[in-house]
Amino acid sequence: MASFLSHFLLPFFLFGLALAATESGKVGVNYGRIANNLPTPDKVVELLKQQSITRVKIFDTDVSVLKAFSNSDISLTVSLPNENLTAASSSQSFTDTWVKTQILPFHPGSNISAIAVGNEANTDPNLVPKVVPAMNNMYSSLQKYSISNDIKISSPISYASLQNSYPPSSGSFKQDLIDPFIKPMLAFLKKTDSFLMVNAYPFFAYKDNSDQISLDYALFKPNKGNVDSGNGLKYDSLFVAQIDAVYAAMALLKYNDLKLVVTETVGASSENAAAYNGNLVKRVLTGGGTPLRPNDPLDVYLFALFNENQKPGPTSERNYGLFYPSEQKVYTIPLTAAQATRSVAPASANNATKAVVPKSGQSWCVANENAEAKKLQAGLDWACGQGQADCRPIQPGATCYNPGSLVAHASYAFNSYYQMKTRAAGTCDFGGAAHVVTQPPNFGSCKYPTGN
Ligand SMILES: *[C@@H]1O[C@H](CO)[C@@H](O)[C@H](O)[C@H]1NC(C)=O
Ligand SMILES: *[C@@H]1O[C@H](CO)[C@@H](O)[C@H](O)[C@H]1NC(C)=O
Ligand SMILES: *[C@@H]1O[C@H](CO)[C@@H](O)[C@H](O)[C@H]1NC(C)=O
Questions:
Q1: Cβ neighbourhood burial of 346 (10 Å; 0-12, 13-18, 19+)
Q2: How far is the CA of 128 from the centre of ligand 3 (A)?
Q3: 10 Cα–ligand 1 center, Å
Q4: pLDDT at position 358
Q5: Among all ligands shown, which has an atom nearest to the Cα of 85?
Q6: Which position among 23, 46, 264, 317 bears the catalytic label?
Q7: Does residue 34 contact residue 304 with C-beta atoms inside 8 Å?
Q8: Who is most buried in 122, 230, 369, 392, counting CB within 10 A?
Q9: What does pTM read for this prediction?
Q10: Rounded to an integer, what distance in angstroms lies between the CA atom of residue 211 and that of residue 188?
Q11: CA geometry: angle 401, 357, 344, nearest 5 deg
Q12: Residue partners of 418: CB distance under 8 A and separation at least 6
């Protein structure tokens, strides 16, 4: 705890003083487990502690996970899955039992601070009318067991619940969601002193409108910004503009001061995810609120902790992790206020941005130092053989033969293959023996190709 405090609070405090700033936001991570190769929950808690991650959201109330978090100083948001929403909406005896068996045995040893009742129920018309009754039952159950002050109840909505989001000041909710869902939910959140949960994926909006939205604006990089034609406020990132559209939509229904937490957000491809998440974290930890709500800190949960190999859908779905199942970082971003403030030290803002991603889209593939030799060799053989990577430079006497280590040679071959495949998702894996980095690899005097 002591080292955690000095790591986190001191720089936070100094930074706060220096700017006389509003409270900074907080960063958490979604810990999904749709995979068969993840570390045990106990090991995951160790990893989170090492990274000073203090807020985690999970998608269920798995016993082994809840147990692992006991006495960990990590606060948890747990979830009632959509498949249980109907039961929860129809009777308080269901939520009583659920709270008694899923929450009470673990709290407060495991610090459960919020329950997400369902997830993105706005996307399923059958679930829409169930959400608020389920939230009400859940609240009554928390009251029954005298924990309604410790644990907040909310229900993540997806960004698709907005009708308008551009310009942000014209934000509004979809008409058909307002009466059956949004209005009663906002009333519930206000009554119980809770907050709106929003899953925001600005990168998808960028991809659909890349003729109108610049990549720099989507990735929090320096850009000329966008002025809201409705009120003249200036936005320097799509993410912040999206959040203000939600605030505006709430204001339209006369909810002007309800808090909001971004419960999921992510960039798209591996390279852009590094820039998006890295710059987002810096923005959250050092940048104050939004133009519409300058005094409300931005709280976000990144998506997600691990690459999850059993998620269905396109390859990108399985590659949203900050970490590989091996616990190696997929890329390096600041995760604490200390790291974030260090990287925005005076006059080094540009260099700091470079430290995250040297140039838009640049990345390399390297071997995991801790991977088994057998795996590295198999990957190396495959890349130089069937993979048709250019392995001439690692032949004896050639420019990248030294250093002659397996890790160095495998890295060269993996990167060659990765660049040849234009850094497509899934081309830097080699059975878990490789990962993407956003800094040029450094092995002796060998120069690693970049595709661009
Ligand atoms: C539990 O988490 C909440 C929210 O992060 C925090 O405010 C509170 O101090 C924590 N409680 C304990 C006992 O650690
Ligand atoms: C939630 O729903 C699933 C699927 O229908 C079911 O197997 C599970 O038992 C339900 N959970 C509870 C606590 O009833
Ligand atoms: C930024 O990086 C350049 C080149 O790496 C270095 O010379 C310069 O001192 C750095 N500036 C700051 C403010 O750190």
A1: exposed
A2: 53
A3: 18
A4: 40
A5: 2
A6: 264
A7: no
A8: 122
A9: 0.73
A10: 40
A11: 130
A12: 364, 365, 427, 428, 434, 436
In our burial notation (b when 16+ CB lie closer than 10 A, e otherwise), range 326-343 reads bbbbbbebbbbbbbbbeb
Q: Give the number of other CB atoms < 10 A from CB of residue 263.
A: 28
Is there a contact between 53 and 8 (Cβ–Cβ < 8 Å)? Answer: no
In this structure, what DSSP letter does residue 399 have?
A: T
Q: Average the pLDDT over each of 27-36, 76-85, 106-115, 325-334 and give the range with the smallest value.
A: 325-334
**Atom 5 of ligand 2: nearest residue by CA position:** 83
Q: Measured between alpha carbons, how far is 267 from 237 in angstroms, rounded to an integer? A: 13
What is the arithmetic mean of pLDDT over 294-317? 90
State whether the beta carbon of 84 lies less than 6 angstroms from ligand 1: no
75 C-beta closer than 6 A to ligand 1: yes
Highest mean pLDDT of the ranges 37-41, 315-319, 394-398, 436-440: 37-41
Catalytic residue of the set 23, 46, 83, 120: 120
Pocket test for ligand 3, best of 344, 351, 356, 439 (most atoms within 8 A of CB): 351
Q: Cβ neighbours of residue 62 under 8 Å, at least 6 residues apart? A: 33, 41
Q: Which domains does the chain have, with CATH numbers?
A: 4-342 (3.20.20.80), 364-437 (no CATH)
Contact 125, 171 (CB under 8 A): no
Q: Which ligand is nearest to the CA of 347?
A: 3
